[in-house]
Every structure is written in structure tokens, then in C-alpha cells.
């Protein structure tokens, strides 16, 4: 019973996500407005919130360093989008060269901000606030206040198309979707069992077999249901492949590498981390360079999805990323949080946006609801820490 309570406590937001999805499904069906789980709606949910997952993954690393955030990510999205539009649409540059150059510019933006934060000790809040103004201004200057569109089909296919392709039959689309879903489930089971074996070999505490099996069954059922719904629509969105790669890389980085553990150590206790010989400046520098790089990736996804580059692109994206991390269980004090939690938080935000939009709730009320949800997540974190200290 104790292990069950611990498991539920660790997966509080996952349980909350399931409850919210079920609530919206009931409300949407009662209002006669279709279904939250309509195949087309599921595909749209993935494509509309792809940028949130990418940005939340990078933002998590910033938060882990001690509750720090990056306010400039939305403006970087606008800047890189403006550059991409200029390279690809105006100058008709080779799209692969343009993509590489956009990513390099994103890295340079990160180097600029990381230098001031890590080596000059400018508070991240102030430095990225300045960046928010600088990069937005440059984006508007590059675009001259206008919107650039449309992008060539050769570029759009990497971010807006579906697998196995528009020409495939319904049978092929469903078969490919189910096979990919089954492979994902097999990979999840293999990774989980391998992790359990490693923990046992090293003498660490392991999850109860019954709870582990139950968790895997539930997750695999959800995965297969999602891919089944995608199979009923147009297939697997290509952007989902990109998201899977990003999540896998950063999940591995944060849990299996020394550099990843250094980020957690920095957020847990900076003084102790410095005394242990870890170069905290280098860690902080890398985190903000990485955040700008992922912002550039998100920008390439966004211009593909909207088929345009606009000065207003990326507005409030930083709020979605920050909110996703805190809702997903990241601590406002740093040192606590997971990539999986950030993804759950991003899905939670996406479901809130999508469900309220389907129900026709006013945009201003949507902001109120999201603000209250974010406040509740942070309050939960603060109260939990106080309770743990009092024990």
C-alpha cells in the first residue's frame, strides 16, 4: 500500500491529466461538439503543441539549475523564423543549408546570453528579459514589419506531412501506425526491464513488480490508442518523429550522463557543487546555449506549421514552456524535475487549450484558467517541500 501511495504521488500530474481529459470529453460530448479524442483532433493536438514540448524540454534544464528561466525563447523563435523566411523564401537558398545556418544562429544567440549569465554573473531573469526585447526587435527589423510566405513544399513536408504518406491507402496507414505503436511499446518495456535489472545488480531499491507491470500496461494501452487514432486520420505526423528524438535524447542526457547529473547537482546546492570541483559556470553556459538551440528548432517547426514568418511569432511561448515544466513537477527552487514530467505538462497545457477552444470558452477566461493551474502547480511544490522539511 505504501509503494502504491508513493507511485501515485510521483505520478500526480499524470493522474490529473487523465482526469482533465475525461472531464473535457464528457463536457464536449454533452455540448454536442464532437469528441476530444476524434482522430483529426488528436493529430492536430500533436502538431499544435509540438513547439511547447521542444521549448519545455530546454526550459526544464534552465529551471533545474536553481529555478532559473529564459524569457527570450519566444523572441528567439521570431528571430530564427524571420531568418528562415529570408533565407528560404526571399533568397531561395537550399533548404538544408538554410536549416543548418538557422541552427547555428540559434547557437550563437545562446552563446551571447550564456556568456553574460555564466561568466559575467548577470541574473538569468534580467539577461533573458533583455534578450526578449533585442531578438524581437531584430526579427521585426529583418522582416520590415511584414509577413513572409509561403514556404516551399520541399520544406513544409518535413514538418506538416504524415507517414506513410498522403498517397497511401487507409489499410497501409493503419498498419504502419499500429506497427510503430507496437515498436514503441516494445522499446518502453525493454528499457524499463533493463533499468530494473541494473538497479538490482547495483543493490538499489526497485519498483514492485506488480506496480511496474500495471504502469507498463496502462502506458502501452495509451500509446496503442494514440497510434490507432492517428491511423484513422492521415497517419503519423512527421513532427512527432522529431519530438520523439528530442525527448529521447534529453531523457537520456538528464538521467544517464555525468553532465546531466551536474545540472541537477547545481540546482540542488550550488556551493556544494562548486566545492566538489564541478565547473558551474560551464554548466550554466551550456544550459542557456542549449535553450537557444532548441528555440531555433522550435522556430523551424513553427514556420513550417504556419507556412509563414511573422514579427509576432512566438508571442508568450516562454509562458507555455515555463508553465509546462512547473505543471509537470519541476521545482521552483531547482534540482527537481524530469523530461517526462515536462512532456506531461506540455500535453496538459495542450489539452487545456484544445478542450476550452472546442467548448468555445472566451480566450480571456482561458488565460485565467491556465494561470490558476500554474499557480496550483507551484503551490503544490512549495507545500510539499515544507511538509518534507517538517518531517
Automatic annotation (TrEMBL):
<dbReference type="GO" id="GO:0022857">
    <property type="term" value="F:transmembrane transporter activity"/>
</dbReference>
<dbReference type="InterPro" id="IPR001851">
    <property type="entry name" value="ABC_transp_permease"/>
</dbReference>
<feature type="transmembrane region" description="Helical">
    <location>
        <begin position="12"/>
        <end position="31"/>
    </location>
</feature>
<keyword id="KW-0812">Transmembrane</keyword>
<feature type="transmembrane region" description="Helical">
    <location>
        <begin position="43"/>
        <end position="64"/>
    </location>
</feature>
<feature type="transmembrane region" description="Helical">
    <location>
        <begin position="95"/>
        <end position="121"/>
    </location>
</feature>
<feature type="transmembrane region" description="Helical">
    <location>
        <begin position="285"/>
        <end position="306"/>
    </location>
</feature>
<keyword id="KW-1133">Transmembrane helix</keyword>
<dbReference type="GO" id="GO:0005886">
    <property type="term" value="C:plasma membrane"/>
</dbReference>
<keyword id="KW-0762">Sugar transport</keyword>
<keyword id="KW-0472">Membrane</keyword>
<feature type="transmembrane region" description="Helical">
    <location>
        <begin position="208"/>
        <end position="230"/>
    </location>
</feature>
<protein>
    <recommendedName>
        <fullName>Xylose transport system permease protein XylH</fullName>
    </recommendedName>
</protein>
<keyword id="KW-0997">Cell inner membrane</keyword>
<feature type="transmembrane region" description="Helical">
    <location>
        <begin position="236"/>
        <end position="253"/>
    </location>
</feature>
<keyword id="KW-0813">Transport</keyword>
<feature type="transmembrane region" description="Helical">
    <location>
        <begin position="71"/>
        <end position="89"/>
    </location>
</feature>
<comment type="function">
    <text>Part of the binding-protein-dependent transport system for D-xylose. Probably responsible for the translocation of the substrate across the membrane.</text>
</comment>
<feature type="transmembrane region" description="Helical">
    <location>
        <begin position="172"/>
        <end position="196"/>
    </location>
</feature>
<feature type="transmembrane region" description="Helical">
    <location>
        <begin position="326"/>
        <end position="352"/>
    </location>
</feature>
<keyword id="KW-1003">Cell membrane</keyword>
<dbReference type="Pfam" id="PF02653">
    <property type="entry name" value="BPD_transp_2"/>
</dbReference>
Amino acid at each position: 500500500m505504501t509503494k502504491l501511495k508513493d507511485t501515485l504521488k510521483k505520478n500526480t500530474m499524470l493522474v490529473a491529466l487523465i482526469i482533465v481529459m475525461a472531464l473535457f470529453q464528457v463536457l464536449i460530448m454533452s455540448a454536442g461538439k464532437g469528441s476530444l479524442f476524434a482522430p483529426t483532433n488528436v493529430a492536430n493536438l500533436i502538431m499544435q503543441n509540438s513547439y511547447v514540448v521542444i521549448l519545455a524540454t530546454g526550459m526544464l534544464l534552465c529551471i533545474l539549475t536553481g529555478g532559473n528561466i529564459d524569457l527570450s525563447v519566444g523572441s528567439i523563435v521570431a528571430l530564427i523564423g524571420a531568418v528562415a523566411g529570408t533565407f528560404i523564401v526571399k533568397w531561395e537558398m537550399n533548404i538544408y543549408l538554410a536549416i543548418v545556418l538557422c541552427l547555428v544562429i540559434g547557437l550563437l544567440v545562446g552563446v551571447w546570453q550564456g556568456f553574460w549569465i555564466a561568466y559575467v554573473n548577470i541574473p538569468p531573469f534580467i539577461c533573458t528579459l533583455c534578450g526578449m526585447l533585442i531578438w524581437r526587435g531584430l526579427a521585426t527589423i529583418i522582416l520590415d514589419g511584414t509577413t513572409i510566405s509561403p514556404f516551399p513544399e520541399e520544406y513544409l513536408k518535413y514538418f506538416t506531412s504524415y507517414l506513410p504518406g498522403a498517397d497511401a491507402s487507409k489499410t497501409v496507414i493503419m498498419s504502419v501506425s499500429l506497427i510503430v505503436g507496437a515498436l514503441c511499446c516494445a522499446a518502453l518495456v525493454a528499457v524499463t526491464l533493463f533499468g530494473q535489472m541494473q538497479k538490482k545488480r547495483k543493490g538499489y531499491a526497485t519498483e514492485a513488480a506488480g506496480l511496474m507491470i500495471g504502469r507498463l500496461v496502462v502506458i502501452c494501452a495509451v500509446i496503442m490508442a494514440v497510434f490507432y487514432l492517428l491511423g484513422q486520420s492521415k497517419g503519423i505526423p512527421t513532427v512527432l518523429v522529431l519530438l520523439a528524438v528530442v525527448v529521447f535524447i534529453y531523457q537520456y542526457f538528464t538521467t544517464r550522463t555525468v553532465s546531466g547529473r551536474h545540472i541537477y547537482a547545481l540546482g540542488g546546492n550550488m556551493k556544494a557543487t562548486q566545492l566538489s570541483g564541478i565547473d558551474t559556470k560551464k554548466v550554466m553556459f551550456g544550459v542557456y546555449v542549449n535553450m537557444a538551440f532548441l528555440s531555433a528548432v522550435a522556430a523551424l517547426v513553427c514556420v513550417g506549421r504556419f507556412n509563414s514568418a511573422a514579427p509576432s511569432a512566438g508571442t508568450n511561448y516562454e509562458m507555455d514552456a515555463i508553465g509546462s515544466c512547473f505543471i509537470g513537477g519541476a521545482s521552483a527552487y531547482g534540482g527537481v524535475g524530469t523530461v517526462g514530467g515536462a512532456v506531461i505538462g506540455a500535453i496538459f497545457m495542450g489539452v487545456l487549450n484544445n478542450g476550452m477552444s472546442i467548448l468555445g470558452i472566451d480566450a480571456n477566461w482561458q488565460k485565467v484558467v491556465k494561470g490558476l493551474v500554474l499557480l496550483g502547480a507551484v503551490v503544490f511544490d512549495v507545500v510539499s517541500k515544507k511538509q518534507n522539511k517538517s518531517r
